[in-house]
């Protein structure tokens, strides 16, 4: 199978899994989802990754499922192998920002005791570190778990970083910077360079988080013009690659930056854009950035 065929098959599988997950979340049967749109058999084939619908059909399905096409096509969450119930629960809790429930669920699931693959253990400790930091802002504990998560797969001698390794490194720089442990932003700079210049890098919408965390950290350190430069770079990267993940957050942060430097015209434009994107893609925005 060629690289193109492999990528297409992966996209079809991701699309099918995301649609099936949302259908079950809404309590719909395949027959109910298909009503007045297509046949139940076609829905079944789409969910199994055997058929990719055209844009019109996909739009009708997503509209009934109350989800954006972007959310259907792209998987913003890292998943542990063969634990779909766990993956669905963590995704729901993340989407609703229910970090206490997520931390409780992770700790009570005892899943970590049964995981064998290093990449699965990495995902587990990444999510746990995120929930701990969101709840407590305890930098030492969060950094210990983030570095543990990174250690499962990362080697300083490897030629390329995986997507999750890049996200974890971004989180480490973010926590260190927010906690006044490190103001050098070296990991952020390295990751930005990789995203913009590595021609072999596989596209992942999660890279939007790296631009966002970098810009937010600069914003918190009152480096407004640098922060604006990074967020604009992130917006350009996202639009160049048809990525809408966190695009509304980009413009919300940009509006706050322009307000801070008293650039009212650009602040108004950024505000209008994040409001449109929030409505269009049903993306929850982090409005607690100060």
TrEMBL record:
One MF annotation (Gene Ontology) recorded for this entry: DNA binding
Coiled-coil ranges (or none): none
Record keywords: DNA-binding
SMART domains membership: HTH_XRE
Keyword Ribonucleoprotein in record: no
InterPro entries (UniProt xref): Cro/C1-type_HTH, HTH-type_regulator_Rgg, Lambda_DNA-bd_dom_sf, TPR-like_helical_dom_sf
Classification via SUPFAM superfamilies: lambda repressor-like DNA-binding domains
Signal peptide, first to last residue: none
Superkingdom in the source lineage: Bacteria
Pfam families: HTH_3 (PF01381)
Residues annotated as domain HTH cro/C1-type: 19-72
Name of the molecule in the record: XRE family DNA-binding protein
Biological classification of the source: Bacteria, Bacillati, Bacillota, Bacilli, Lactobacillales
């Amino acid at each position: 199978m060629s690289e193109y065929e492999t990528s297409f098959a992966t996209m079809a599988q991701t699309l099918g899994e995301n649609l099936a997950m949302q259908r079950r979340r809404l309590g719909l049967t395949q027959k109910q989802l298909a009503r007045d749109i297509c046949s139940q058999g076609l829905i079944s084939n789409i969910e199994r990754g055997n058929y990719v619908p055209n844009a019109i059909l996909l739009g009708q399905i997503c509209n009934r499922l109350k989800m954006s096409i972007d959310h259907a096509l792209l998987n913003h969450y890292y998943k542990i192998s063969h634990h779909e119930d766990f993956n669905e629960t963590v995704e729901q809790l993340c989407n609703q920002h229910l970090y206490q429930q997520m931390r409780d669920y992770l700790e009570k699931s005892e899943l970590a005791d049964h995981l064998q693959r290093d990449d699965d253990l990495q995902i587990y400790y990444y999510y746990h570190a995120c929930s701990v930091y969101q709840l407590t802002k305890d930098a030492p504990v969060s950094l210990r778990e983030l570095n543990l998560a990174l250690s499962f797969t990362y080697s300083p001698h490897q030629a390329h970083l995986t997507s999750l390794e890049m996200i974890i490194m971004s989180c480490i720089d973010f926590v260190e910077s927010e906690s006044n442990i490190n103001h050098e932003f070296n990991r952020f700079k390295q990751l930005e360079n990789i995203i913009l210049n590595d021609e072999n890098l596989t596209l992942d919408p999660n890279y939007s988080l790296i631009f966002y965390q970098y810009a937010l950290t600069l914003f918190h350190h009152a480096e407004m013009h640098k922060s604006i430069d990074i967020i604009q770079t992130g917006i350009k990267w996202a639009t160049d690659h048809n990525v809408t993940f966190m695009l509304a957050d980009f413009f919300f942060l940009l509006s706050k930056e322009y307000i801070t430097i008293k650039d009212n015209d650009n602040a108004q434009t950024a505000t209008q854009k994040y409001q449109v994107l929030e409505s269009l893609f049903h993306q929850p925005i982090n409005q607690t950035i100060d």
